[in-house]
Amino acid sequence: MKKGLLFFAMLLTAALVLAGCGSSSSSSASGTSEITIGYFPNINHVPAMVAKSEGYYQEQLGDDVTINYKTFPDGSSFMDALKTGEIQAGLVGPGPAMNNYTNGADVNIIAGGSTGGTVILAREGSGIETVEDIAGKSYITPRVGCTHDVQFETYMEERGITSQRIGGDMIHQTGPPATYQAMFETGKVDVAVAPEPWASVLQQNTGAKVIIPADEVSFGTTLPASVLVSSGKLIEENPEFVQKIVNAHKDATKFIQENPEEAKTITIKDIKETTDQELSQEVVDGSWENIGFTYEVDAEAIQAFGDSSYNLEFLTEKPDFSDLIDTQFID
């Protein structure tokens, strides 16, 4: 191949890689590429909201890259978007990342996002005062086998109480956390396994009682509540691009740690725009007490969580997550 043609082919390959090789990324005639970052409208995902507000991805990736953001109600829809190329990176609970990895999905955890934030609450009038009272009651989580679901079911299984899915008597329902208040108010569910800020919303707006606090639920102080993920394909083809994604995420995390009040304001605005629900300062302040923000990843906690997912029959084979976590971008 002539040198000129070889150089052109190299440029074309680079442009395709920058586009993320997905359906939502493209290169225009002017050379502008796109990337879409996914996240949830939960306080565990504040680093994405801050990065969006402060323009950290734009700073790292440059003005010739168009940055898009897409929110998701649960990990299943997020992972579908990552697998189809609709998004190239983003924040998701470790549960969906692990479950999809064990099923052969091309996903890697490239940084931590947050820790904590899962609270178990009982509806006022449900008759639930203690953990033992939850037996035979209905509970709601975002999805079957999601991070919050595994945390709750692990805690309950250790006390001899399980769901109908594995022969017990707890009745499982699923739904977006933003709908939990309505579910409590109509009496359609007794217990909510709620990520923040929705746990604090339930406390403030419905008088819900905390039965298992965030620091007592299984893996509550060690497991990442959210992780930054991307595809192994993108990591292999353009590690420098992925490094810039992680750098932007690290900048956002540092901003949260150094400017908590400004980060709270950004959070309130972003969740209002996404869910049309405006959180009070009291709710956000309460949520912040249950959550920590870090880009570090506890690999041992993730493996222990995966082992529990297998024991609870969310996974058909005992997992090995030694290749799921790629720490080269945060080391």
UniProtKB/TrEMBL annotation:
The keyword Cell membrane applies. Keywords: Cell inner membrane, Cell membrane, Lipoprotein, Membrane, Palmitate, Signal, Transport. Residues 1-19 form the signal peptide. Residues 34-259 form the Solute-binding protein family 3/N-terminal domain. It is found in: Cell inner membrane; Periplasm. It comes from the Bacteria. Its main location: membrane. One of its GO terms (molecular function) is ATPase-coupled transmembrane transporter activity. GO terms for cellular component: periplasmic space; plasma membrane. SMART domains: PBPb. Belongs to the bacterial solute-binding protein SsuA/TauA family. NCBIfam families: SsuA_fam (TIGR01728). This is ABC transporter substrate-binding protein. The lineage of its organism: Bacteria, Bacillati, Bacillota, Bacilli, Bacillales.
